[in-house]
Write a structure and sequence with these properties.
This protein is an alpha+beta fold. It has five helices and eleven strands; from the N terminus they run E-H-H-E-E-H-E-H-E-H-E-E-E-E-E-E. The strands form three sheets. A seven-stranded mixed sheet has the order 1-2-3-4-5-9-6.
Amino acid sequence: MNVRPLTRADLDQVMHLLEGVIEPSDPGQLDPYLSAPSAANRFGSGLVAEDHGKVVGVVAGAGIKLTVAGLEVSEEEITQRIGLLDVLAVHPGHRRTGVGSLLRDHLLDRLRDVGHCLVMANLAVGRRDLVPIYAAWGWTVGNPGAGIAIQIGSEPLALAEDPGTRVAWTALAPEVRLDSTLLPGASIVAGVFT
């Protein structure tokens, strides 16, 4: 199994893998991402798993984009510190063989290498089958609609509070942890911006 960067030549195979994972679209829609690869655009930093020349898995992620007036932390710093595992898809014939874990690990290593301390994934509430997978990976999986509270500057900020999703997250740095002392009755992810 070979893991390598996603290229334009992979788009047709990748679009088949993404059926049922993201909205149906034209492979050409991913082209702008591949034109300017960076840690800040999801498919521009995407990876594929290849088995005997056939793409059998894809993972994509990037720094989250967040603009909130009055934050003590810049949008650029947030994008560099908090990553999003945006898409992970494996060909049905290669599921439960470690391909997804291999892709996940490669993406997390890339995100860690460019300075991300925390990675999130937004799971559709209806996809209950994903909860045990992320939990088995050691990720914290939240309740539907709860989002994730993160200490950004002096204030905790709730992200991804969407009734249609639940957030799974994992720390990429040892200083990132749940802290229940910041706000009574709440667990807040601290250590991302230290």
